[in-house]
TrEMBL record:
UniProt-recorded name of the protein: Major royal jelly protein
SUPFAM superfamilies the record matches: Calcium-dependent phosphotriesterase
Signal peptide residues on this chain, from the entry's feature table: 1-29
Keyword tags: Secreted, Signal
InterPro entries: 6-blade_b-propeller_TolB-like, MRJP/yellow-related
Subcellular location: Secreted
One Gene Ontology cellular component: extracellular region
Length: 376
């Protein structure tokens, strides 16, 4: 339920007033449109027999940058470039993926990627090794994919972290980085130009796991056999950078205005009451947004892909048993949707410490531009 809002007595900026008004109204989607029948066709475009890829971005020339966090329990570079002929290389180079390299000059565990239109790639590094130890400070790394070089890094200030923190997702917009803490629920905002870092919405319900993660009707457990708890770790930003979407693995999806997150005069009260329940999503492996504002979700509970249009139509476009824990997808400007299958419920983190992945793991592609529009 949404709380009744008591607006502060001071005069509010117009953007703040609009955001609070939208938060005061339940903003759930209309009845889902009928699922596509038949499902959108899946085209296999890449496979792995050694690494679990949990996210990717696709460069204009078709090459892919692939993300394999240390938590997957597999060896190899945490960030790799896949050429057109299928060969992979550490990215941006071997040194940035070498454990012998000083922590400030290497990627320990890439957790989240964002490619923007000017060729900038943002990479969030948690600093956790394969034994789940923090061996380096968490940091945000900016790369130029046109030259394949690191142009700057920002270390996450320990003051905005908590014991048990683990950064898990990032999106950049309005000159700020928005970073989720999946270990201790919170949202970290970094002013990329001026430097200040703030921790917001500590333990807010929208950032906190409220129910178990399920896959195929089974509750996902952690390495110790207990119910897995992962706080907010899925994140996306609207094409105009006005809205930040986020949720824990288990759902549901929330939205908040980035104008509120970047305004240092906004109070914690105003922020807490401005997060809007956007849709009661199932457990998600990831999401991405197209240029027209359509969100694409990977439903790990059923092996499905959904779209949620800017017109608030929610529709399943794929249901396929090959999509075992589909992870964070990527969509190109032409509408090609790439979905990595990760089988994370069969990796040590979520499988009593045992590796049971059934190789190979496949990346699939869907041509969303060829799909019929959903009908209300």
């Amino acid at each position: 339920m949404f709380r009744t809002l008591s607006l502060p007595s001071r005069v509010m900026p117009a953007a703040l007033a609009a955001s609070i008004l939208s938060a005061a109204v339940p903003a759930l989607a209309a009845k889902p449109a009928p699922p596509l029948d038949p499902s959108a066709p899946l085209v296999a475009v890449a496979q792995s027999t050694t690494q679990v890829w949990t996210a990717l971005v696709v460069l204009p020339d078709g090459r892919m940058i692939l993300d394999s966090p240390t938590s997957t329990g597999t060896q190899g570079p945490t960030l790799a470039l896949r050429d057109a002929d299928g060969t992979t290389h550490p990215y941006p180079d071997a040194g940035w993926n070498d454990p012998a390299t000083p922590p400030e000059k290497r990627l320990v565990s890439a957790e989240s990627l964002q490619l923007v239109e000017d060729g900038t790639l943002w990479v969030l590094d948690s600093g956790f090794d394969s034994a789940d130890r923090a061996v380096a400070p968490a940091k945000l790394v900016r790369l130029d994919t046109r030259t394949g070089t690191v142009t700057r890094t920002w270390t996450v200030d320990p003051a905005v972290l908590r014991p048990g923190s683990r950064v898990a997702g990032v999106r950049v917009g309005r000159g700020h980085a928005f970073i989720l803490d999946s270990g201790v629920p919170g949202l970290i905002v970094i002013d990329l130009e001026h430097g200040p870092q703030r921790r917001l919405m500590d333990h807010h319900p929208s950032l906190t796991a409220q129910r178990p993660i399920t896959v195929g009707g089974q509750v996902v457990q952690d390495a110790t056999g207990h119910t897995a708890i992962v706080h907010a770790n899925e994140i996306e930003i609207s094409p105009d950078s006005q809205w930040l979407y986020y949720q824990p693995f288990c759902g549901p999806l929330y939205r908040i205005g980035t104008d509120l997150l970047t305004d240092t005069t906004i109070t914690s009260f105003e922020l807490d009451d401005s997060a809007t329940l956007w849709y009661k999503t199932p457990p998600l492996g990831g999401m991405t947004v197209a240029r027209d504002g359509t969100l694409y979700f990977d439903d790990i509970s059923t092996g499905s892909i959904f779209r949620f249009t800017a017109g608030r139509i929610y529709q399943r476009i794929v249901l396929d048993p090959r999509l075992r824990w589909p992870a964070t997808p990527a969509i190109t400007p032409s509408g090609q949707l790439y979905i990595p299958t990760a089988q994370l419920d069969r990796t040590p983190r979520f499988n009593h410490g045992q590796m049971a992945v059934q190789w190979p793991l496949t990346i699939y592609r869907i041509d969303t531009a060829a799909l019929p529009p959903p009908i209300r």
